[in-house]
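Hey,
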Amino acid sequence: RYSKKYGNYCRGLILEHSNRYNNNFEKLNREKEYSLEEAVELLTTFNLPKFDESVELAINLGVDPKHADQIVRGMVALPNGIGKDVKVLVFAKDNLAEDAEKAGADFVGADDMVEKVKGGWTNIDVVIAAPDMMAEVGKLGKILGPRGLMPNPKTGTVTTDIAKAVTEMKAGKIEFRVEKNGIIHNSIGKISFPKEKIVENARVFIDAILKAKPQAAKGTYMKKITITSTMGPGIKLDKIGIQDRV
């Protein structure tokens, strides 16, 4: 933990965990890869904070996202949702704007919403756009892109079927995209969910990642899978066993 380059300074950057985290960590067998059912059962025995933690999956993939043909990206509808109210912004006009409002979109607009986002407003989880709005929405790339909010036809967020897209997003359809270090990290529910619903969501999510495997990917595709709660330690999963069962 001592850096020749930065000396003792790096010691001050070492994050000290809470007693709750350390107590939960002690329950783990660090040499073991747990089945999904075992891991979820273990999660529910942890000492939990006062808020309803998210349950998250982190999957290390054997891909190099620097190459366009190895980017892993897509959408998946989790059968039990993710346990949060998804805020949806729709860029649309006229009839499509009406469809968005009827379907339950939180924010709907055209040029007025473009200007609002240009001003720095991004209090949303998903952005959907009608195709005829993309010329204007494209100008928001520097704002929406880094936040993973840019609409894309490949993920179903640029569409004329606005009502369907809004309904799916509000019901728990989520986007996944591999990060530059080859990891996909997403929330798949809440710790308050029944255990079987967490397991079901996890299986559907992992299956979607498997189906999204690029043809250019070589060697081991899923190198490591970890499940965790927001404030808890990561639990390594038996990646072979899980892939055999999804």
